[in-house]
Design a protein that fits this description.
Blueprint: H1 4-14, E1 27-30, E2 36-39, E3 45-49, E4 57-62, E5 64-66, E6 71-73, E7 81-83, H2 84-89, E8 114-116, H3 125-153, E9 158-165, E10 169-176, E11 182-193, E12 196-207, E13 212-222, E14 233-241, E15 247-255
Length: 256
């Protein structure tokens, strides 16, 4: 069995200079049987295959790098297995398959260019667009939640600031002092005096925010007539409700 020392010596005999960078600074060897050779200068690395046979080959497992120029050489040969005479005939910037011969069955080789090492990967435009869309969705959702909360805090609020006894019922002066329109507003009164009791009822389809209305509530039940002149003092209770769930009560003492 051939020794590792013979393997190293054969590498230097076949390749006194690096096949890619043409440096003569030598090689470093690694692997269980020193079957990997790496150029000390450019760090290009080959795996040595069938090294002691006439069919010896080399596989480029690491490209040649020039850290000062930030270039690579042999990028198109990376991972390719070629006979040793292919690597011996290679020029620094050009490789031609016809120099090797058809019997090697080497695919037509392109120029081995010195290529600038590509910059570090950056985020692609589609990814940026997706991120921006997601951010926009979050912002819109946040605005929607904010306005939803603000809307839920809005509600009608009533102020009954005057009532008057009329022949046909009771006139109620009401204002929506809230920040939301009131729908299905009902006004119920109960009136109690020395000469009898009465109740009235009225409704509004809508009472807009900041709107003031006068509504005459009609009698629904009475134990006396409002027409009878008296010096009575009436205690009037006004209850206002709406479909938005607001219910308020107001009490007045009215001298007839």
């Amino acid at each position: 069995m051939s020794s590792d020392k013979e393997r190293v010596e054969l590498m230097y005999k076949r390749f006194p200079k690096c096949p890619l960078c043409k440096s003569d600074k030598g090689y470093g060897f690694s692997g269980w049987i020193d079957d990997f050779a790496e150029c000390v200068s450019c760090k290009a690395k080959w795996k040595l295959l069938s090294w002691f046979s006439e069919d010896a080959k080399m596989e480029l497992v690491k490209v040649s790098r020039d850290p000062m120029k930030r270039t690579v050489i042999g990028h198109e040969l990376l991972g390719k297995i070629y006979p040793t005479d292919f690597w011996q005939k290679i020029k620094r910037l050009q490789v031609k398959a016809k120099e090797v011969g058809k019997e090697t069955e080497i695919p037509e080789a392109k120029e081995v260019r010195e290529e600038t090492i590509p910059p570090k990967p950056t985020v692609s435009m589609p990814v940026i667009i997706v991120i921006l869309v997601l951010i926009l969705i979050v912002i819109v959702a946040g605005i929607g939640v904010y306005y939803s909360q603000m809307e839920s805090q809005k509600k009608p609020k009533f102020n009954v600031f005057d009532v008057r006894l009329l022949d046909e019922g009771i006139a109620v002066y009401i204002q929506n002092t809230g920040n939301k329109d009131a729908h299905g507003v009902t006004i119920e009164t109960s009136c109690r005096g020395y000469d009898g009791d009465a109740s009235t009822y009225g409704e509004l389809e809508i009472l807009k925010a900041s709107e003031t209305r006068k509504i005459i509530t009609e009698k629904t039940w009475s134990s006396y007539n409002f027409d009878i002149p008296t010096l009575d003092i009436f205690r009037v209770t006004v209850t206002v409700t709406c479909k938005e769930g607001v219910s308020q009560e107001f009490i007045f003492e009215v001298v007839d």
